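Agenda item 2: manganese (II) ion complex prediction
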Amino acid sequence: MMMNDLDAIVEALENNNSFLLAQHAQPDGDAVGSALALMWALETKGKKAVVYNEDPRPHYCRFLPGEDRFSTELGDLAQFDALITLDCGEFSRVGEAVDRLKDFPFVINIDHHTSNPMFGRLNLVDAGASSTCEILYRLFRRWGIEMDKWIAECIYTGIYFDTRGFQNANSTAESMKICGEMLELGIEPSKIARHLFVEKKPEQAVLMGIVVPTLKIEAGGKVAGLVATADMFKRAGAGPESLEGFVEIPNSIEGVEAAYLLREMTAKNGDALIKGSVRTSDNIDATIVAGRFGGGGHKRAAGFSTKGELEEIRRELVELLSTGLDSGN
Ligand SMILES: [Mn+2]
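Presented output:
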């Protein structure tokens, strides 16, 4: 799926002055990288950009230039000419602010999720792109942005994060070429790799020790997953972001074709929720499985938040994944 208002978006950026940049709540490396890359690019053109997210940035993004420029307040929306959503598979992913933002008169939607319903007045959505940062790179090229080391660090971070260091199927010649070009602008790939994927906080390592024993391998070795209860977070003294990347533990097991991670969490309104991450091989579409729980994402990596009891959802999810693998759906 490809929705391409590239030239119209370049024109809109050129002809307007003040932009609000929103990404999905609980931002990841691509959300933070794309917001900051676009902020710096707009500033090189003398434009004003405010970067908004209701949630704090994950600790692994704290090294990025401009990381302290995020705001958790929207302020007066009338000051903005356009709202640009980044890495949001649907409008509601911006979080609670969607109630105020959904009537904004001019929305530009830049994203790479398969399930994106094209909610912007202008849309630049390519599910074939590794990341939102890869799409921004194309936009900057078309717009004639002179990319510097700061922009390069942000772009590289988004691509490297969403491909998981080129381990995922969304790693393409194009995404690698762009990253090579970012290296030529002076970034240090080993530093970024360490921040994104290697370094753990001590409490994350403790949490790993508690969560790994919940591993279950089922469906004849094809489905594997972990669960994390609220009590486990408490025992480890770790926050909800601490599970980043943990789904790769079951996903790394030989023979496993579908992996999951479920965790208990509390929504902002106080509701108890189960948050799920799903990783799949070629043989099963993760967006269909996550969709059954009201979520979405990419074919091989998707997620959801739902109400319910942890073990019940685990059974239901394993059942769906096993059946899906059997039917080749
Ligand atoms: Mn992304």
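Discussion summary: The longest helix spans residues 310-327.
Owner for follow-up: CH.
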